[in-house]
User: Which sequence fits this backbone?
């Protein structure tokens, strides 16, 4: 069998891999897109579908804003409808410190091009009279929205193929090696793919690949806990979720024009990268139901008709890995989106494609560098003064990443 | 310690299993969705109804009475949970819903006797009000004492077609026609297998005699073309091809459909059972051994929910599975009975195979369905849309096609459209049915109330819910006002 040659091999056909392939084609580079199963089946296809910028760390906002343009132009970009709705997105909270944080975050985010409106007290009640009495404040992002995750990544893949990318589904990678300046990727079926650059966008399956290049990451597979109700009249135009430091409270929902409400949030469930399956724990469903009665008492008479999950990947600082390898020229990573990869996905794809095609990008990537997980040198650690509060930094874990 | 055994389903399989376990000194938990025991075939009427066993169950009156009496004798020796839905199963535990109350029960052995529902083939117009399944038509008669319409057409194939028709005739309902997609020749060819249970065969022929005597229009070898009517009128008639120059129209105000039965396998799926494709029935079924052991440790399957073999076989397989549980937990099980039950089940299996040959699933109809035919009624997805998805996206696997088309995504979770949907996909993609696979089972088994809460006697949420909560969502206008 002859090998397939291209400028770039993208491994993994989720939202990041497919959009990277599409944007690489727009830069005129030849692309091979490899997928172990089918396009957009795991985290990209099973997530909530939130097109949400607010709540992201400030360093993600530049890429997230860039991604938003792709979602707004998705019909033209992809040539099909992926049910993107610019519905607006609202975060609400139950605790005073979180209400204060909404104001701080809105101020800071403004500098990064994300405009938010925060409502407290009477203004909150006037705008959202249907919310539970415990809700204290709301942070509204008018330009955010939601889209159908089951359709999005496969549509990006089809657009990439129409633009000239070669897609190989059900192609499991058994070996990835670099030899004489060229990457060589072998599949389980014995096919060989060669390219000058490789993008690893394999979500929860990225660990063994980065480790092979001397860059291990503490990647953990977990599954979102999703549910959907029967259809009812379409009234909730905004996608909405709870911001909180109490994991059980962090639920979110959106309603689609067909009428169903899509529900999610709370603690994540177990996921297994070997079987590719993730479970929804019954106790998590039960917690969600209680939290939704608290957030939106009017939902109480509804029924949940289905629950589902998928395999997502998480990193300890809740930030993804995006950018070039620190060990190997021509190798790029984009994985570990910690349950928040769907919206930003096309922005990551556009940025990586730009970086690979032109050698530079205006989007700052330092915070997402893979070498942040390099084992700290013992000597260096010892030399830090014990009083330095920046030393054993436990990065604040954000919950309610809806 | 005695194993904790949970039986799901109080039909003939579940009741016989419970009896065998009680005889061995165990106290099983028997969970059932219905208000009363008996399952579907021996469904009991409400207490206030006074029809006799003979009126209700005809030739099966004796068996029905025996199953009911067995259950009544068990009441003090089992933990019986009626009106309880097992909505999810996790490792060693079932998750229950009783109204808005949630609870969980641990088990060492779980016996699923989930029964069967009608196997359905779409036909244009089957979404109209007045369209029922044959099983649904029978429930109306047994439990509510009413017919599904003033003038009823029964269409499809299978023994239930003739049973329901005869029951309707005897109850005094007007049966406008019985329309069978299978042919007399198919019946003849199956005769040798059907003769393995001559009594059952005789009973079946007696049903046809009832219809003949009542002068019911009976057509075999028909091709259903359309259920006529409109959203305003509901069903007004049925159009079928009878091989004549002109299709036949039969006026009616209700139709019952069914093409034999399909096992209700979602619980087996949630319990982690392996499924295998059964070429003969064209269905994915949970793998079981002769006695009903599934591939999942501690999980047993019996009755029509495992294999559609009828009520007599359900009694047999229920008891057999109970004996398997006893043996697997090193408890005494009568060996002579084991051999007898296995022989009896094998004989009934041959008869069931005869019924399948006599009343075959009309798989080929799926390819011919007009594009406008709704396949998934919950989500209102047409055959044309499903075919477009197959063509445009290359989705030939059932779950993939579901993700793109929504077929099987609604309230019934594909229980009623999944099999026909798979046939449409297979025909459109020109692949064998087996290659389409099966829709993965996902909790909840039936729609789960958002009001569901752990019942610990404390009302945690009373202070949180506004008094208008219940009426809010129903009031579309108010909700829209909120969202301006």
Assistant:
């Amino acid at each position: 069998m002859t090998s397939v040659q291209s400028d770039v091999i993208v491994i993994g056909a989720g939202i990041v891999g497919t959009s990277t392939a599409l944007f690489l084609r727009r830069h005129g580079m030849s692309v091979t897109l490899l997928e172990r199963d089918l396009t957009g089946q795991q985290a990209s296809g099973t997530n909530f579908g939130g097109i949400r910028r607010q709540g992201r760390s400030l360093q993600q906002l530049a890429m997230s804003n860039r991604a938003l343009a792709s979602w707004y132009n998705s019909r033209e970009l992809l040539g099909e409808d992926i049910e993107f709705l610019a519905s607006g997105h609202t975060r609400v909270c139950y605790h005073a410190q979180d209400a204060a944080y909404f104001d701080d975050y809105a101020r800071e985010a403004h500098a990064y091009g994300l405009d938010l409106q925060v409502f407290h007290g009477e203004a909150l009640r006037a705008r959202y009279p249907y919310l539970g009495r415990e809700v204290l404040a709301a942070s509204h992002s008018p330009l955010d929205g939601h889209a159908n995750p089951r359709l999005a990544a496969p549509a990006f893949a089809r657009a990439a193929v129409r633009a000239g990318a070669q897609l190989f589904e059900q192609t499991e990678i058994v070996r990835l090696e670099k030899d004489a300046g060229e990457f060589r990727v072998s599949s389980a079926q014995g096919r060989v793919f060669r390219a000058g650059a490789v993008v690893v966008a394999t979500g929860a399956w990225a660990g063994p690949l980065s480790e092979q290049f001397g860059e291990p990451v503490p990647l953990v597979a977990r599954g979102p806990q999703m549910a959907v109700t029967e259809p009812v009249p379409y009234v909730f135009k905004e996608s909405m979720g709870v911001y909180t430091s109490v994991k059980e409270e962090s639920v979110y929902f959106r309603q689609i024009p067909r009428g169903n409400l899509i529900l999610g949030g709370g603690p994540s469930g177990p996921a297994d990268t070997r079987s590719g399956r993730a479970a929804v724990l019954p106790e998590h469903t039960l917690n969600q139901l209680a939290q939704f009665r608290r957030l939106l008492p009017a939902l109480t008479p509804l029924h949940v008709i289905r629950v589902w999950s998928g395999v997502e990947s998480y990193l300890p600082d809740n930030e993804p890995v995006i950018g070039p390898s620190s060990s190997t020229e021509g190798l790029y990573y984009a994985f570990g989106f910690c349950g928040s990869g769907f919206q930003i996905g096309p922005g990551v794809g556009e940025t990586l494609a730009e970086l690979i095609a032109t050698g530079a990008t205006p989007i700052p990537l330092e915070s997402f560098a893979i070498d942040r997980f390099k084992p700290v040198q013992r000597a260096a650690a010892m030399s830090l003064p014990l009083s330095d509060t920046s030393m054993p930094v436990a990065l604040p874990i954000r919950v309610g990443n809806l | 310690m005695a194993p904790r055994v949970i039986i799901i389903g109080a039909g003939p399989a579940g009741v016989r299993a419970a009896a065998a376990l009680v005889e061995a000194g165990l106290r099983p938990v028997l969970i059932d969705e219905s208000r009363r025991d008996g399952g579907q075939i021996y469904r009991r009427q409400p207490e206030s109804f006074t029809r006799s066993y003979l009126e209700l169950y005809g030739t099966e009156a004796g068996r029905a009475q025996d199953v009911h009496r067995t259950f009544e004798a068990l009441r003090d020796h089992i933990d019986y949970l009626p009106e309880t839905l097992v909505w999810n199963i996790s490792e060693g535990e079932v998750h229950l819903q009783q109204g808005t109350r949630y609870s969980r029960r641990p088990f060492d052995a779980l016996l699923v006797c989930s029964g069967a529902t009608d196997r359905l083939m779409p036909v244009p117009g089957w979404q109209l009000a007045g369209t029922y399944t044959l099983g649904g038509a029978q429930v109306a008669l047994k439990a509510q004492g009413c017919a599904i319409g003033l003038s009823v057409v029964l269409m499809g194939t299978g023994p239930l077609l003739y049973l329901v028709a005869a029951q309707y005739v005897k109850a005094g309902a007007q049966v406008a026609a019985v329309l069978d997609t299978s042919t007399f020749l198919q019946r003849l060819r199956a005769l040798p297998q059907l003769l393995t249970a001559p009594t059952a065969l005789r009973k079946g022929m007696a049903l046809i005699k009832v219809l003949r005597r009542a002068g019911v229009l009976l057509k075999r070898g028909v091709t259903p073309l359309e259920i006529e009517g409109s959203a305003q009128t509901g069903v007004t008639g049925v159009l079928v091809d009878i091989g004549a120059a002109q299709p036949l129209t039969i006026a009616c105000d209700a139709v019952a459909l069914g093409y034999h039965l399909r096992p209700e396998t979602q619980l087996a799926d949630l319990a982690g059972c392996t499924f295998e494709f059964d070429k003969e029935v064209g269905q994915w079924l949970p793998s079981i051994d002769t006695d009903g052991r599934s591939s999942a440790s501690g999980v047993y399957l019996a009755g029509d929910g495992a294999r559609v073999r009828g009520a007599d076989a359900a009694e047999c397989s229920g008891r057999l599975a109970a004996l398997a549980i006893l043996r697997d937990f090193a408890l005494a099980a009568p060996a002579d009975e084991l051999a007898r039950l296995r022989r009896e089940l094998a004989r009934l299996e041959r008869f069931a195979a005869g019924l399948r040959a006599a009343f075959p699933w009309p798989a080929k109809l799926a390819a011919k369905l007009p594009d406008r035919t709704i396949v998934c009624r919950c989500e209102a997805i047409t055959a044309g849309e499903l075919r477009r998805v197959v063509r445009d996206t290359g989705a030939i696997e059932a779950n993939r096609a579901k993700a793109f088309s929504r077929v099987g995504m609604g309230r019934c979770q594909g229980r009623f459209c999944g099999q026909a949907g798979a046939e449409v996909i297979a025909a459109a993609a020109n692949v064998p049915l087996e290659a389409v696979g099966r829709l993965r089972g996902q909790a909840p088994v039936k729609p789960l109330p958002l009001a569901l809460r752990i019942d610990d006697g404390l009302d945690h949420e009373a202070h949180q819910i506004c008094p208008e909560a219940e009426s809010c969502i129903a009031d579309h206008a108010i909700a829209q006002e909120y969202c301006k």
